Amino acid sequence: MRDLANQNFSTNKKSPIPRSFRLIILAVIIAVAVFFIGSRVNLPVGGGQDIVLQESPRNLSPVSVDDSESVTEGGVDLVTQTAALKDVKYGGDASGRASRSFGGGTYILSVDATLPDPKNTNYQVWLTDGTNVIPIDYMRGSKTSWSLSLRDTDKYSKYDGIWVTLERSKDNKPEERVLEGSF
Fold it and tell me: Where would you find the membrane-spanning parts of this chain (predicted)?
């Protein structure tokens, strides 16, 4: 009888390809298979985009419009005006431009200005009709580039003058006028 206690029955054959390399190859094969299957079935592959461009159907017929129907019916004509803002404080170092559009109950105001750095003060935009002056808002910006954008209901179209003031205190009283103009 043979003594089997000192025998080695395990198979210690080293595989020529490491296990991690085989796993990477398997992952690449699965990714390629998913890509080709997804592209054949029109599934979104990569990027997760929801929009797929497709060709429009053939043999579409044009829609005719009668002369009595207006394509723009219900549209609103906006009045657009611009104003060049002139320097009244800094001797030519300040300049600006304002534009406004209104109509259909909407008022849009845009002001862009080149002004000296206000240092602990603010620039504010005002509208005037010659007798009344109403504050709009404080300009935003830094250094010498300042702007204001307003979109509101039309309660300002009767005011045809515009001021930019230097404000030391935040109240409803205009202080030092810097720029002024009219639409």
Answer: 21-39
